[in-house]
Design brief:
By secondary structure, the chain is α+β, with helices and mostly antiparallel strands. The protein folds into 2 domains: 2-156, no CATH class; 175-363, Heat Shock Protein 90, CATH 3.30.565.10. 66% of the residues lie in helices and 13% in strands. The chain has 13 helices and 7 strands. It has helices at residues 2-6, 8-12, 16-40, 46-73, 81-111, 114-118, 121-174, 180-196, 198-217, 226-244, 268-281, 320-333, 360-363, and strands spanning 223-225, 248-254, 262-264, 287-296, 299-307, 338-344, 347-355.
């Protein structure tokens, strides 16, 4: 289902190069068939044969665009193969019938009743209907082939872009999400604890080491189980608790049935970092942070909220990490996700809703 959403625009796109080559192929066929038509029906001169044949097959060339649209609206994955073939078989009869009515109607308007004298129309109507149906099915087959090829190319393009963003996310994780002050502040906290509380300083060093190690362990993964993502976020949280002590009041409510579900790699830590920065670090006194993760229909709903004691301005860098998260979500889920953030009364809320299930091939990319 996911790949259908991701490639919907690809299926509906008609490449101008395809139109050119299609037009060229039809033109060659029309020139060739006009000779055959003139040979079979000597009473009809070549130019008249060319005119009739041109009306017939240029009309079907236009119909070919319509057939492409049908294939775009009825992808192979949507229907069982026998039912899909039956649908197109019925459509081929209808389209071919309309096609014959149009071309013979045009010929009649040009030549009048003489067309019945020059050629036995009814004797050829049957095989022309069969020919029209065959052409319809051929165009449908070519359309599905091109659509599938475009889907593969689009998937490869997205995988390449996801790979770059994933590696970018790894680098940002090692640099503490584009925040050099985090590492600096952590080392300062360790320095202050060395003389006052050596045991705690060793604990923070261990947590920092764990965080960096976990970043490296997950470096080739675009998505991870929720439990692993929480473990990474909790390690980051423990370090921040050392920095802020009782000032940081954190609480979470997580549906245990979702722990094995896959979520984007390094998606919770930027949300938590944003909450710590704007709910705790930027203000004096105590602040709170709440994390809620629950099932909502067939989706995972994530809500990170924090206390807000003043306005957040663009000058303090708000939204930088969140925009990076949004970009990765867009590439992973296209239109199947929701991501909103902003102040609500006296708190700041970030809400993320993603599909509960993700395709197996999207969980990990082979680099």
């Amino acid at each position: 289902m996911m790949i259908n959403q991701m490639s919907q625009k690809v299926r509906k796109k008609i490449n101008p190069q395809m139109i050119f080559y299609g037009f060229l192929a039809w033109t060659v066929w029309i020139l060739f068939y006009s000779l055959i038509f003139n040979y079979q029906v000597p009473e009809v001169d070549y130019w008249t044969a060319l005119f009739i044949t041109g009306i017939q097959y240029y009309t079907y060339a236009v119909i070919g665009i319509f057939i492409w649209r049908i294939c775009a609206q009825i992808p192979v994955e949507r229907l069982p193969k026998p039912l899909l073939f039956l649908v197109h078989f019925v459509l081929s009869i209808l389209v071919s019938t309309v096609w014959l009515i149009f071309i013979y109607g045009g010929w009649y308007l040009r030549e009048g009743d003489t067309i019945f004298e020059a050629h036995d129309i009814w004797s050829t109507m049957g095989w022309q209907l069969s020919f029209g149906m065959t052409v319809y099915l051929m165009i449908a087959g070519i359309s599905y082939t091109v659509i599938h090829y475009n889907q593969i190319r689009e998937k490869e393009k997205q995988q390449a872009e996801l790979k770059l963003l994933s590696r970018d996310a790894e680098l940002k994780a090692l640099k503490m999400q584009i925040n050099p002050h985090f590492l600096f502040n952590t080392l300062n906290s360790i320095n202050a604890l060395v003389s006052q509380n050596p045991k705690m300083s060793r604990k923070v060093l261990g947590l920092l080491s764990d965080l960096l190690r976990m970043s490296l362990d997950m470096k080739d993964q675009l998505t991870v189980p929720l439990k692993d993502e929480l473990a990474f976020m909790h390690t980051y949280l423990e370090i921040e608790k050392v920095r802020f002590g009782d000032r940081l009041d954190y609480n979470e409510e997580i549906d245990p049935n979702l722990l094995a579900k896959w979520v984007p790699n390094i998606v919770l830590q930027p949300l938590l970092e944003n909450a710590v920065k704007h709910g705790i670090a930027d203000f004096r006194g105590k602040g709170w942070i709440r994390l809620l993760i629950k099932k909502q229909d067939k989706r995972i709903a994530i809500k990170m909220s924090n206390s807000l004691k003043g306005e957040i301005s663009s000058s303090n860098g708000n939204g930088t990490g969140l925009s990076n998260v949004k970009k990765r979500l867009e590439l992973l889920y296209r239109d199947e996700y929701q991501f909103t953030y902003g102040p609500v009364k006296n708190e700041y809320q970030i809400e993320l809703i993603i599909p509960l299930e993700i395709a197996e091939y999207d969980k990990r990319l082979d680099y």
